[in-house]
Amino acid sequence: MEKRVCIFVDGENLRHSIVDLFPSFNQHDYLPKSANWAEFFDWVAEKVSDSRGERVRTYWYVVQNIDFAPYGLTSARKDKDLDHLTKIICKDKGIKEKWSLKKPDEQKKYITYIADDMEKNKDKMQKRFGGWVDIQGGIENDHKSIEFRRAGSIRYNLYNQTLGSEKSVDVKLATDLIKLKDIYDIAVIVSGDQDYVPAVDAIKDFGKHVVNVSFVKEDGYMLPVGARRLNQSTDWCLEVKHSDLKTFLNLP
Most-buried pick from 89, 181, 202, 252 (CB within 10 A)? Predict the structure, then answer.
């Protein structure tokens, strides 16, 4: 009897795995541009069902918004409220220390310069995020039965131009894992996040089989993504060889 397979992808977890597995991959590309995603997910569905399964759909979870820190920067600039702008920007101890050593006129110029630079970095990050959305849309259009689901946010620190952790994306994946239980027989989780364990335990109580995917490094060792507890909770783990993933991602 043919098994219905749904694949649930933790997008940021997968992206970090690709970066860790393939150091030469350019992170600014977000994802490999010529990857054979549908073929990869069909192959996964075949493996987890002993060649007796059909991939119903791949649900790929990504952030919906970016939250920029410090908060209120743009509105303070528009209002030309220098005191408020100074208060916002000087939350950073390093900037506050440099600001305090300057003369009053220099302090105003310094804060204005920092604020303008932060706003430029914010615009750059928003354009970069828009590029990610375009890539996701291209994957949906070019590969069958792949759907991006957006939830939550990710924090971008304008002080040091770094991204933080996602918020609520894992909750959306876990919720859908349970909500969509009637459309699949086998659920596949592409992630190493142990936060999915409670949802996995709940799904198994409905008689579903749950498999998680782990990636093997080129040296033969498992990619360390904290998947031990998820491995223990799922029915079994599909280990994807480095060479197989490289072929599907079409990387040199």
Answer: 89
Among positive and negative, which fits the CA dihedral 214, 219, 224, 225?
negative
pLDDT at 22 over 90: yes
Where is average pLDDT lowest: 99-103, 140-144, 228-232, 242-246?
228-232
Task: Please state which of the four CATH numbers 3.40.50.1010, 3.90.220.20, 1.10.10.10, 3.40.630.30 is assigned to the domain occupying 3-65+123-249.
Answer: 3.40.50.1010
62 pairs with which residues across the strands? 150
- Within 8 A by CB and 6+ apart from 112, the residues are 82, 85
> Residue 148: which H helix or E strand, with range?
strand 146-157
Q: What confidence tier does 40 reach under pLDDT thresholds 50, 70, 90?
A: very high
> Domain-by-domain residue ranges, the chain?
3-65+123-249, 69-122
Angle, helices 242-249 vs 11-21, to 10°: value is 110
- Between 139 and 229, residue with greater pLDDT: 139
In the chain, pLDDT over 70 holds for what percent of residues?
A: 98
3-state class of 11 per DSSP?
A: helix
Confidence of residue 115 (pLDDT cuts 50, 70, 90): very high
- State both tokens at 15: 């992206």
Which pair of structure tokens corresponds to residue 186? 């086998």
